Amino acid sequence: MTSFWLFLSDLFIWSFGFYDFAGNVLNWILFIVASTLFCYWCYVLVTTLGNNKDKEYYSPTEGKFPYYNPELHTKED
């Protein structure tokens, strides 16, 4: 009976080592995916906003103040 418990103990020790290894592999995979997404995000920001391309943007609501209209927000006495 003692040999069974020793075998079970070895099995648990092996399984925790396996979980530790699998966790490290998963951690590296997630790190590589996150780093790739971050680099892609930086690339998109640089290519779309770099070289002052944002100055060519035209806003259809510029100067119209859609959130504040003095005619609608007058104080009534």
Uncertain segments: none
Query: What is the helical fraction, as a range of percent?
Result: 55-70%
Strands, total number = 0
**Overall pLDDT level:** 81
Portion in strands: under 5%
Which structural class is indicated by helix and strand composition? Answer: mainly alpha
Organism: Cloacibacterium normanense
Protein name: Polysaccharide deacetylase
Pfam families: DUF6341 (PF19868)
Keywords: Membrane, Transmembrane, Transmembrane helix
Describe the structure.
By secondary structure, this protein is an all-alpha fold. It has one domain (2-56). It is 62% helix and 0% strand. The chain has one helix and no strands. It has one helix spanning 2-49. The longest helix is centred in the first third of the chain and has 48 residues, at 2-49. The protein is elongated and about 90 Å long. Pfam families: DUF6341 (PF19868). Keywords: Membrane, Transmembrane, Transmembrane helix. It comes from Cloacibacterium normanense.
